[in-house]
Amino acid sequence: MLRAYELVYALRPNLQDEQRVSLIKRFEELAKRLGCVRTEVKEWGMRRTAYELKRFHEAYYIVMRFFGDSSAKDEIDRQLKLTDEVLRHLFVRLEDEEKASEEEFDESVVEEASD
Description:
The protein has one domain (3-112): Alpha-Beta Plaits. Helices cover 37% and strands 41% of the residues. The protein has helices spanning 17-33, 70-82, 102-114, and strands spanning 3-11, 37-53, 56-68, 86-93. Strands 2-3-1-4 form a four-stranded antiparallel sheet.
């Protein structure tokens, strides 16, 4: 059964642009390879953290929404834990699939692009 998930992960702030883009694509492609559908990625960018994460006070935040089964979520979780460039990550299972509709996500992307 496909469930709606939202993943937020924080990358080290000292990564080169190429490294950051490569990591983002890596996790997006991993999700698709594991059978996740409607994979959407949004970059929040560099933000100050509320507290120190592995000696960093800033991190580059990424949000990924997708529909997948629990085994796909578990494998993505495992890969995130094994990646040194990821400071912290959090999965949230969205209660209702309508809450994860692509319209909701698209609206936030449009708002950010207009800023």
